[in-house]
Write a structure and sequence with these properties.
Blueprint: E1 2-11, H1 12-21, H2 23-29, H3 32-38, H4 44-64, E2 77-81, E3 87-91, E4 97-105, E5 108-116, H5 120-128
Antiparallel strand pairs: 1-5, 2-3, 4-5
Length: 135
């Protein structure tokens, strides 16, 4: 059962300007693994990547209805890529399934996050294998 949907759109050039002007932006928004992945990109692809991660975290915060801050911090949310390039989102101590789609067009990045309640079998599996599905 879907329990939350969040959407966010960001200007890639605006995020790029913030990244270039504020040294702490990357380390406050992105995890170490995300920064490593970003470092493999060059030129406009670097800013696209960072804007996509920022947008995904914003969309996640909207899907939960909590925002960023008190219950969930920037560093609690991690958006990485599977081997085939598909983005995945993982959140520390978050018991629900999350799905993310990130798309770029021109100077815009649009992200959608869906949160789904886990089945009873998945909940039991998480108790047995606690590392599955969380950071």
């Amino acid at each position: 059962m879907i329990i939350g949907i969040g959407n966010d759109i960001e200007s890639i050039s605006r995020v790029g300007q913030i990244v270039d002007q504020k040294n702490k932006f990357l380390t406050s928004i992105l995890t170490a693994s995300e920064i490593d992945q970003a470092s493999t990109r060059r030129g406009k692809h670097y800013h696209e990547f960072v804007a996509g991660r920022f947008s995904a975290k914003e969309a996640f915060s909207k899907a939960t209805g909590f925002g960023i801050g008190e219950k969930v911090k920037w560093q609690d949310i991690e958006v990485l890529n599977e081997k085939n390039g598909r983005p995945i989102i993982r959140v520390k101590n978050f018991p629900y399934k999350t799905y993310v789609a990130i798309t770029h067009s021109g100077d815009q990045v649009n992200t959608v996050v869906i949160i789904e309640r886990r089945t009873l079998l998945e909940k039991i599996s998480l108790k047995i294998f606690p590392k599955r599905g969380v950071l």
